[in-house]
Specification:
Layout: H1 8-31, H2 39-48, H3 59-93, H4 106-120, H5 128-148, E1 149-150, E2 153-154, H6 156-179, H7 183-193, H8 202-221, H9 223-231, H10 233-238, H11 243-265, H12 271-283, H13 287-311, H14 320-340
Antiparallel strand pairs: 1-2
Amino acid sequence: MERSIVTLSRVIKVSFILLGLFALVVVVSMLVGPARIGFVQGFQGLLFGWQDGSAILTPSEKTIIFSIRLPRVLFAGLVGAALSAAGVIFQALLRNPLADPYILGISGGSAVGAIIGIIIGIGAVPFAIPGLAFCGAAATVLLVFFIGRSNRELHSTTLLLAGVIVNAFFSAVIMFLISISTNTELHSITFWLMGDLTLSSWFKILFVAILLFAGFAVIYSYARPLNLIVTGEETALQLGVDVERTKIVLFMAGSLLTAVAVSFSGIIGFVGLIIPHIMRMIFGPDHRLLLPASFLFGASFLIAADTIARTIIPHTELPVGVITAMCGAPYFIYLLRRRSL
């Protein structure tokens, strides 16, 4: 699609196209799995099978589609959208193409909280492990901001270095916790560290969706000031943008999206790194279009990756992070090689 001046009509047009792609990916994902359901029958079931007394789907097929696959598909879409939107924010504010949602150490802090919960055996308590993971992520964000802020200003370089240092420290803590865990705990820890979408539920979906759309609304309201900040903070100041306030709000909103996604799904790499790059190459750098495009395409990408993860090997389910890494790493190598030529 050719780049052009970003207008409201273009944003709406692109969003509807990507929303259509999202709907297509959702339908295909719900009809693909170990239990075979005919495509035509399954599509009719998606349209009418939820009704009481419908004979299109058998009771077991209704359970598979609406109680097992649908929650997981929607949950994957929410996580993918959150990580992609956060990736756009961090790459813009840090002016670093390698920045991803985990750049401030959020993944490390969240992982420490989740692993502690797994080791002490509170997984049976509802929201216990996600709660500990979110607390770990939130504490990490506050720590990084405390280290990276000086003279009431946020310096991108200092913030980036603080995130790298904190993440390195938490990586050592994670290795220590893994070394003292049992075999059963190690399996749960490994799945969480590679991304696990198997524990989706309607309550989790609703909770994540509320926080996600609230965070995205805040971020999108700053799309125009963000465009000016990317071109230069001095220019943005001269044009009336409160640069420090905008940076703090966007960093916090991006951190919130990341913390929520990671605390419920584990660490899923490369989504927030490559999706903003792909959308920027197609639609350009204007965040009024880049943000919704990354949001919708990131959702579709993670749903597709999760579908591959649960179907590529019969009777075996891979962590979704394995698929995103296998897709993301080669693409990013290609991107780096292309820019160096």
